[in-house]
Structures are given as structure tokens and as C-alpha cells.
Amino acid sequence: MSEKWIAGVDLGGTATKLAFINMEGVILHKWEIPTDHTNEGHNITKNISDAINERLAELDHPKTKIVGIGMGAPGPVDYETGVILNVVNLGWKDNFPLKASLEELTLLPAAVENDANCAALGEMWTGAGEGAKNIVCVTLGTGVGGGVISGGSIVQGANGAAGEIGHITVMPFGGAPCNCGKTGCLETIASATGIVRLATEELSKEGTTGGLSELFAENGKVTAKEVFDMARNGDVIAQKVVNEVSFHLGLTLANIANTLNPQKIVLGGGVSKAGNFLLESVKENFSKFAFSAVRDSTELALATLGNDAGVIGAAWLIKNKIKL
Q: Which residues contact 307 (CB under 8 A, 6 or more apart)?
């Protein structure tokens, strides 16, 4: 029998990543299509179905080559029903029946999960968490996402909203507003957006000097990458910002680890590209606040799959569901 494939989909607000993945979690073909928000988002699943059919035709493979389609979507998802509860940037109304729509249009078995959870599953299957069954993954990007895996399965919670690590309150008094409606969330500090906000606040003070200050004066803004680059070079303001980010992130991860005792905590997303410079600083703070037994049994690591984690984790949903 010829090798079977799984279609993995990582749905984003701007672009949708697609891939054909084999049963070992290896990406064989991958591509992207724009995410169409018009018509209350009803074109999204049709475009995904069309893209899969077109790529199969290009590769001269029948639809029977695909055993199912797994998708990671932004927002809380009811895994059992495949209903996405609410998404603010895709046009869908609340409680959109995403799984049913995918199955109707693709004529394939479908499974749907939160995108951060899919990234966590991808890292567990073939990435930094390979071989571990108790993992916490934290995605540090424009926002802060999270996925908790216990015994090899995603912890979903009562309505699919478990693992919202970015919305743990770290600044209960005087914290910055978060897009979730609260203030002082981890996301307001440890995301790329939060890092830029912290840096901008420092650089807006009178009498600032140094390389980061010069960049700010020249461009009127700085990026999270520039903050880390300047911190590596000893810039005092950049180091202050990185120290604050690392403190809050290390403290939060220690409290999560004290509760869950994971084997690994994996840091991914664009901010994690700061690499060991960020990781070592977070580890230092993690060690201060983690219970000794937890500190000794939990490894902090950088994600290895990059942008591929979501589609690989989405494919794992099907592999696990069908028990292939």
C-alpha cells in the first residue's frame, strides 16, 4: 500500500499554512494561501479545500492519499465538536462549526484545535519536546500563546481555553492594558509588542543615552530584535528591558512548573529567536522561583520547528484520532 498522508493546516489572520505530512511527522510538501476574511469568513474553509485539491492534482495523487485534515485555529476550540468559540479577526461569528465545515467541503475526517496547542503538539511529536509526554509550550510572538500537554494529551479545560499563559496576571497593580480586556497580563510584557512598549517607555524618558536611544531618536521606534541585539552589546536601557521580561517570564514559568511539574518547557515564537541570550536569563529567574524538585526535573529549551510546528501538530491530531 502506498504511503498515506495527512493534511495539516495552520490558520492565521493573514495567511494560512498548509502541508502534506507523513505518518512520522515529516513535511513532504508545504505552501501558503491568503486568509480571506470576506463573507463572514465563509471562504476560508472553501479556499483550504480548493488548495488541497489543486496541490494533489499538481502532484498527480488521488484524494484517497489523504487520510484526514487537522487544523490549528486562533481562539478557544471545543475539540470534541470542532466548534471555534470566538475569533475576533477572521470574520466568523461566535461558535462557528469549523470541523463540520471542513469535513463537508474536503470530504475528509477533520480535527480542530487551538493553534498554540497545535504548536505544542508539533514540538512534542518531532521537535524540542520529542520523547516527553508532559510539556508546556510558550509561544512568544505578537502575543503570548501557550499549550499544556499532560500524558501526551493537550489539557483543554472546560471550554477549550486552557493554556492561556499569556493572560496570567503578572502586574496586578498598574499593569498595561491587554487586548483580552484585562490589565497586567504576561502578554503585555513578554510579547514582541510588550517588549517594544517597555523599551519605548524607557526611551521616552529624558536624558536617555546609548545605542538603543540613538536608534529610537533616528527612527522614532525600535523593534524587539533591536532591543535584544543592543542588550547583547551592553546597552543599559536594553538590558533593563530584557531583565524585566526575563524576570516576569521566569517567575510565571516557575509557577506553572510548580503546578504541573512538566518534563520540558519549550519557548517558541519570534521573540525566542533571541536564542540562548534570552533562554539563559529566563532559566536564571526560573531557578529562583521553582520548587527544588521541580527545578531539578524540568528542562527549559528553545523550540526547534519554527513556523512548521503548527501544521505538524495539526497533523498529529489526525494521527492520534485515527490511531494510525
A: 10, 17
